[in-house]
Amino acid sequence: MGDMTNSDFYTKNQRNDSNHAGGFGCSLMELRSLMELRGTEAVVKIQEDYAGVEGLCQRLKTSPTEGLAGDAIDLDKRKEVFGQNLIPPKKPKTFLQLVWEALQDVTLIILEIAAMISLGLSFYQPPGEGSESCGTANAGAEDEGEAEAGWIEGAAILLSVVCVVLVTAFNDWSKEKQFRGLQSRIEQEQKFQVVRGGQVIQLPVSDIVVGDIAQIKYGDLLPADGVLIQGNDLKIDESSLTGESDHVRKSADKDPMLLSGTHVMEGSGRMVVMAVGVNSQTGIIFTLLGAGGEEEEKKEKKDCSHPSSHPIATIATDGAASANAPGNTSLVNGKMQDGNMENNQTKVKKQDGAAAMEMQPLKSAEGGETDEKEKKKANVSKKEKSVLQGKLTKLAVQIGKAGLVMSAITVIILVLYFAIDNFVLQKRPWLPECTPVYIQYFVKFFIIGVTVLVVAVPEGLPLAVTISLAYSVKKMMKDNNLVRHLDACETMGNATAICSDKTGTLTTNRMTAVECFVADVHYKEIPDPSSIPAKTLETLVNAISLNSAYTTKILPADKDGGLPKQVGNKTECGLLGLVLDLKRDYQTVRNQIPEEKLYKVYTFNSVRKSMSTVIKLPDGNFRMYSKGASEIILKKCSYILNEVGEPRAFRPRDRDEMVKKVIEPMACSGLRTICVAYRDFSGDPEPNWDDENNILTELTAICVVGIEDPVRPE
């Protein structure tokens, strides 16, 4: 599939559309055109044509709650009819293309020219002994052997150029191959939560099919297009598609359309997958960009790749970063995104029908203004140079200029010396029969000048640098660092500070509760449940079980004696682990109050730095459970549960004392501190839940938990 071009893949998917979706109630093109709609227009269309999201699920033969059955034949049929969740990669550069790219270096071009001149002139025979009457030149004539070996200089320079080019091209080719292998492995490891047969499972992104029910939550990157079935305070960042930085609020009754390549910034929910791979919005843009790039390449008949022909939707620096975990090999990518191109292409989406969308890049490729074409042509030749390459090129040009000046001076001195010696001092006349002899002398002087120039050009410099960088790449490979381009090594050598992600890179990303402050006692390890007042324990278990995403779970270990599997938000997994350590089961609490019965959810976001869930109690009153960064939640607490489980006043000076005696020692031990609290509300009158400032205040603190993320052993 890797060899198939985007347009082949695209037309193949379109052909599948002819047999009205192989028994499904919607065809591929129907779903594609449905995903073009936004907001109320989409809601009306779904309601009128499909009788709501449930009707849409029925047509796709899926259940909004149970998901697909997971039958292999059904899944294969869906992949055949609606396509796979894969975007075929761009063809890699051939070895010869990489050789041609390596030859574009200025230093190498200077060397090539010098070698050609040197080789050409080495086969020219200098004049024999002319007649005495035509005079002589003292130009340091070479002996016979040296004259015969004159070609060696030029051949040696050419050999060094060939070495540099082959080393660079082979390194780039082999690293590109390794990089693609690693990239495909990473893509296989990318997983997403999907409901199949009533069970929530982690599925590789490429295995998601149309009709799957996907569970989405804060921090997810959506792998496919879909329609929201149910959501809690869902906000999406669609800037990757529209360029708009404002978060878009999504709800099943106002704007249910969720697009691939967008990020969930707040909330959670469930969606039914409607389009995957090249038929999703991201896939369509890739297809259009691919078609546009191919058209331009055909028109210009240029073999070099244009930087903006195939923008990739990621920006990565051409440096190296190491995860240093066993088997973890880091990526060093070198793709730069051309944002303008992508934004132009997204405007296309507003037109109706796929035909118009396919035509658009062809128009833009043919009807572009001449100025833009000129700019593009200029961009083709300008390849980003590393610091060292830039300095080397500058040095080579400077040496070249100095050599040129020196060789010119040498030729002028030799010509003047010959002329003065023969025509002024010895007063010889210029005889017509001597003219060919004089010209031969002048050519010999020119050869001496070229020799000075060739000697001045440093043919060993690029070779030494290339070999040392290739050696560095090998050394870095042993440290689990895959460097894609040679010059990235040297770029990293210039780094003065490296900013590394901590969670999961330097640590194992397995959050575990190790300390807690509960019932006025600071426990350095998880206490025995009997030492905590029953009332406090029950409130704590309910607060953690209900006020965390229901998609977050702790599953049994895969192997005997292994650690339990943490699924979902790792911090919440640490808190659920605390519930299990206290010999309680969070699932029983969740079964009593399923997700759809939660009255109101204030999801976690970077502004709130907390998450709160409101439930309706049997007596008609409300209780809100909150959790979040301890410094944020404690500021909103007016009470705290004491040693017998009763609320007592919690004043600012108590808070300062708690920060000093509990939170700071935990933080000094490298623990993340999370505070769990609650608040009761009267059901009559019902509070204004949108007035967050008055809701998220006067809380009662239950406990402060210290969560550890162990550092990787290496």
Report on the structure:
The radius of gyration is 36 Å and the shape is elongated. The chain is 45% helix and 15% strand. The protein is an alpha+beta fold and 714 residues long. Helix 6 crosses helix 9, helix 11 runs parallel beside helix 13 and helix 19 (534-546) crosses helix 21 (586-592). The chain is built from 24 helices and 18 strands. The model is unreliable at 1-19 and 301-382 (pLDDT under 50). The strands form 3 sheets. Strands 8, 9, 12, 13, 14, 15, 16, 17 and 18 form a 9-stranded mixed β-sheet that branches.
Topology:
Layout: H1 6-15, H2 28-34, H3 39-50, H4 52-59, H5 72-82, H6 95-102, H7 106-122, H8 144-148, H9 151-189, E1 191-196, E2 199-204, E3 213-217, E4 225-237, H10 239-242, E5 248-250, E6 257-258, E7 263-275, H11 281-300, H12 339-348, H13 354-366, H14 370-381, H15 387-425, H16 435-456, H17 460-478, H18 487-493, E8 512-518, E9 521-523, H19 534-546, E10 553-555, E11 565-567, H20 570-581, H21 586-592, E12 600-602, E13 610-616, E14 622-629, H22 630-635, E15 637-641, E16 647-649, H23 652-668, E17 672-681, H24 692-695, E18 699-708
Parallel strand pairs: 15-18
Antiparallel strand pairs: 1-2, 1-3, 3-7, 4-5, 4-6, 4-7, 8-9, 8-18, 10-11, 12-13, 13-14, 14-17, 15-16, 17-18
